[in-house]
Give the backbone structure.
Amino acid sequence: MHIAILGRQPALGVAELEQLYGSDAVRWFTDQSATIDSSRFDFNRLGGSQKAGRVVAELSGNWRSVSMRIVKEYSATWAEYSGKITLGISAYGFPVSARDVQKTGLVLKAKLKQRGVSVRLVPNVEPALNSATSHHNKLGLSSNHVELLIVRASGGKVIVAESVGAQNITAIAARDQARPKTDSFVGMLPPKLARIMVNLTNFDAGSSNFESCTMLDPFCGTGVLLQEAMLLGYNVQGTDLSPKMIDYSQVNLEWLVSKFQIRNSKFHLTQGDAMEHVWAQPVDAVATETYLGQPFSAPPSPAKLTEVRGNCNHIISEFLKNIATQLQPGTPLCVAVPAWRDIHGNFSHLPLVGGLKKLGFTEITLQHVTPNQLLYYRENQVVARELLLLRKT
Ligand SMILES: C[S@@+](CC[C@H](N)C(=O)[O-])C[C@H]1O[C@@H](n2cnc3c(N)ncnc32)[C@H](O)[C@@H]1O
């Protein structure tokens, strides 16, 4: 069993896990973590989890008792270790300070020193190391770079896990900022969210040859979703109304292929209006961030909102009607559409969200996450992205 430490919007992380590994295999453990019981678990694939670890013990109790147990177990396990161990300890859900956590590491380090084993302890600024620190120290990536994830649920149950890695912040930042073409007007889909969206389609579940699958983004913009899908091994097809965006995607994907030495995945880009375009087949899955309307720095007036919402609703409904005629029944889609937040934090949704059945789609319901949790936004954003999980009926 594994435990995942979830990202900034934990429900999106759990939705991703549930789609990839099935609802029976996934459980919320705390509001920031989930357990996964699947032999297919692959942390490197995920966008919505910051870290994950292989569960090595399930305990109960307070920090003191858990800490004593850890010192006892690991001083015995590593007593004969030859070579240096780099150790990080991260505590979640305990009412303890960074110093308390560090102290556990120092006691363990002293005990091992007596046995001639040398430990480098990664300093805790917080009770839990942030994922950048874990990643830069290569924790979880080899047998002598260990991070213990110690997670306490409100009922007192404690999971101890050995990390299998932390999100590669450097590579994610490079995919976001170092790619040659970006465009702040079409918006910046964060690569982590793009990765979650590709995984939410889960179109390769159980398939051994997902490399031959093709994912389509009909509003591809600068190609962030296509990039993430290619990194996961899929062939991709992107279309966009704007020829400039097709040029941008072309440059970005060529850059990705050479920078990340992608050998097997192919890409295909064409200019086209999603309301009437005829896509090349096969299309095995669709992941797209549709037209979101104009950006707003403050909630718009009711008249302006009605206008923008009506315009987006028209474009996205026509797109859905058009693509419904071209997809095989059962084809999965993850479609990000706009929802607008008012000053009280209430959302105004697109009218089409209530009529997806009529447009030819079945909504996928998740066991562990409700549809209203599938909203991605930052606190200062008026336009949120609402993720619709669909299947062609
Ligand atoms: C929110 S952006 C998508 C950004 C994209 N996820 C990226 O990685 O850059 C929406 C895109 O939809 C395109 N668009 C707007 N109306 C369209 C239409 N009718 N058909 C196809 N694309 C359209 C815009 O040119 C824009 O690139």
Observations:
- The domain at 172-392 is CATH 3.40.50.150 (Rossmann fold).
- The chain has a mean pLDDT of 94.
